[in-house]
Write a structure and sequence with these properties.
By secondary structure, the protein is an alpha+beta fold. The protein contains 18 helices and 24 strands. Strands 1, 2, 3, 5, 13, 14 and 15 form a seven-stranded mixed β-sheet that branches. Strand 18 and strand 19 form a beta hairpin. The longest helix is centred in the C-terminal third of the chain and has 25 residues. The protein is globular, with a radius of gyration of 22 Å. The N and C termini lie far apart (about 60 Å).
Length: about 475
């Protein structure tokens, strides 16, 4: 018996195949492009997700014929918040507006004014990254598109429609729309009304570990599968990643150093903190919630510096580690795409402060890594304001390959950070685990175990005071710099 996990990311689609014991049998991926037609905008063609999925799964099916033949369950993970608009004939009306698109900042205030209970119901501040304000923007600026919109789907749920023929979402991804009553795990009629929509525009809802439909017969034939395949509800990318690394119990969390950055912790109840721009969402498994502090430019900040300097990002990180002797003079604010936690400011922008004639590429790379680390420290601070304690923290994402970055994080968060053995514990793996649960009726607690730990990075007590002072300088910079820009 095998299980397929598919992650619809921003930069690519990834598919992994695992057996009933969670052993990785194969993986394949296909790249995606992002369109930025105007500053602050970010779009993708929904059709490209499907094309990339077929490339990845076709490759898996060709290279692992016997394993694909035994497929029983499929799970989906995906980039959250993207607005995919379909007409009454199920045709895509426009490019999907993505999670890191900031155009609907004004519409956020309009939505909160239209429904004063929004934060109480949704557990989150209206932010331009969320789906609902995007629809208000479309209603205002593209009224003919809005009038023809019959269904609004999240990226992975559009892919699900093509896989199964059904319009279904699940609780964790739906939490990021700003249309869900997160405490009740159901669509909110009041929030839908605030954007001129109703339940008919929404997919039905299931739990992430529950069945959402069956794979179409033509796809079963295309991929050489012997029997029926159950498609699980799946999860938003971060909730699915938590399933992949076993962070499903209260106090268990992870820090993700990917394109964006996430500090994630599981909760046994709905626990919002909108004052700190904390995300409070449903988890991908029943009766469980989670909180996230989200920063929009994590490794993307180092990638930006790589483009500016013409040096490879990994080489920059290596040079920063080679010359590291504690906090430097340079400070970087990593707000290249605006920021979510804790500022909720789509118009925030990045800054270097403290430059000198000594500021070479290595020192700038260190400042970038420290700036991202301080952004995570901001996230931890506002999670603490909500009464949340993180008991166990694992590191995932491409940035976790840097030992220096992990040392910075452990020291600034003042807690050990565990690094799993080499393996893929991301959204696709978590989705495959959800697919197993849906197909076999398995208990998520027995399936979603934590991986073996390769190493643990401890806080560096000798640097704690110096970083506390540098973090205080970092925090003090935001308001005057933003005031100067306005």
């Amino acid at each position: 018996m095998t299980y397929l996990g598919i992650d619809i990311g921003t930069s690519g689609v990834k598919a992994i195949l695992m057996d009933e014991k969670g052993k990785l049998l194969g993986e394949a991926s296909a790249p995606l492009d992002v369109s930025r037609p105007r500053p602050g905008w970010s779009e993708q063609k929904a059709e490209d997700w499907w094309t990339a999925l077929l490339v990845a799964v076709d490759k898996l099916a060709a290279e692992h014929k016997s394993e694909m033949s035994a497929l029983r369950g499929l799970g989906l993970s995906g980039q959250m918040h993207g607005a995919t608009l379909l007409d009454k004939d199920d045709r895509v009306l426009r490019p999907a507006i993505l999670w890191n698109d900031g155009r609907s900042f004004a519409e956020c205030a309009e939505m909160e004014a239209a429904e004063p209970r929004l934060r109480e119901i949704a557990g989150n501040i209206a932010m331009p990254g969320f789906t609902a304000p995007k629809l208000l923007w479309v209603r205002k600026h593209e009224p003919e598109i809005f009038a023809r919109t019959a269904k609004v789907l999240l990226p992975k749920d559009y892919v699900r429609f093509l896989l199964t023929g059904g319009f279904v979402s699940e609780m964790s991804d739906a939490s990021g729309t700003l249309w869900l009553d997160v405490g009740k795990r159901d669509w909110s009629d009041a929030l839908l009304k605030a954007t001129g929509l109703d339940r008919s525009h929404m997919p039905s809802l299931v739990e992430g570990s529950a069945p959402s439909g069956d794979l179409k017969a033509e796809l079963i034939k295309r991929w050489g599968i012997a029997g029926p395949v159950v498609v699980a509800g799946g999860g938003g990318d971060n909730a699915a990643s938590a399933c992949g690394i076993g962070a499903i119990r209260p106090g268990e969390g992870f820090v993700s150093l990917g394109t964006s950055g996430v500090l994630f912790v599981s909760n046994d109840r709905f626990r919002p903190n909108t004052a700190g721009a904390v995300h409070a969402f449903c988890h991908a498994i029943p009766d469980t919630w989670h909180q996230m502090g989200v920063i929009l430019s994590a490794t993307d900040s180092l990638n930006w510096l790589s483009r500016v300097t013409g040096q490879d990002a990994a080489k920059l990180a290596s040079e920063a580690e080679a010359q590291f002797a504690g906090p430097g003079e340079e400070i970087f604010l990593p707000y290249l795409s605006g920021e979510r936690t804790p500022h909720n400011n789509a118009n925030a922008r990045g800054s270097f402060v403290g430059l000198s004639h000594l500021s070479d590429a290595a020192r700038l790379a260190q400042a970038v890594m420290e700036g991202v680390t301080f952004a995570f420290r901001d996230c931890q601070r506002v999670l603490g304001d909500a009464g949340t304690q993180i008991d166990h923290l694992l590191a995932v994402g491409g940035g976790s390959k840097s030992n220096l970055w992990l040392r910075m994080l452990a020291t600034n968060l003042n807690m050990p950070i565990a690094l799993p053995h080499d393996g893929d514990y991301g959204g696709a793996f978590g989705a495959a685990r959800l697919g197993l649960c849906a197909a076999e009726g398995a208990d998520p607690a027995t399936v979603m175990t934590r991986p073996a730990i390769k190493s643990v990075v401890e806080p560096d007590a000798a640097l704690a005071d110096a970083y506390a002072k540098q973090y205080a300088r970092y925090r003090a910079l935001y308001e005057p710099i933003e005031e100067a820009r306005s």
